Request: fold
Amino acid sequence: MSTILDRRLTPARPDLAARHLIGQVEARAFADPVAMRVVAPSAPLRREPRPDAALDTEALAGESVQIYEQHEGWAWGQLTSDGYVGYLPDDALRLDAPAPTHRVSALRSFVYPGASIKLPPLAALSLGAGVAVAGEAGDFLVLADGGHVFAPHLKPLDKVEADFVAVAERFEHVPYLWGGKTSLGLDCSGLTQLALAAAGIASPRDSDMLEAIGAPVGFDDSLAGLKRGDLVFWKGHVGIMTDAETLLHATAYTMSVFREPLRAARDRIQAKSFGAITSIRRPV
Reply:
């Protein structure tokens, strides 16, 4: 009998599963993973191998993926960073791509074919994307694939942000997108995960998973005693405190990353959608 495991984090289907799950799940075949890397600026990870299937999350450039199957333009596998399982477009991945040395620290940055801002850009990378730097050219860093990125927009992987809340604040007014994780659009847990990652704090993808990180913060109806960086959770939603009274969150209420008084958010959310606050956590 198969063990009940979280489908979001378990590379298992009735016909195929990861070899390390032998004895834990039932499947007609088992496979070892092939390590690949995302080479597109970002890649949708979908629940099914169809372009109109639900978007569960996005993988950013440079991310490592363990692939168990490639079939008809789709690759089924598991993200190395947070363990999420799903289907990625095959052409967004490469087997031999170099490991990133730097990450994008600007909200968004263009990749140019040479060391000039007047050249038509090749692509745009979102905050958190990883790139392999091979050299320098004036104000630009030269990537291993020949692209050029404005040097101040990149940071070495070992240089982390001091304040994850300040990272989240850069996304204010960015559109809300279910499953999104880029400056073109993102959801509440995507915003939180990206901001924490920029500060060197690894975290899971979805709000129910995030609710297990850090230390619990006691609270009552007054919501007093909170501080910058506290994470406020509802069932299916999470926001970040920017100070003792203000919440920043990606919300369908405004279809954007939005800042508002926590008490106002609490009252509206409780009345209309997610119910009462379930917990408050302090990640650092």
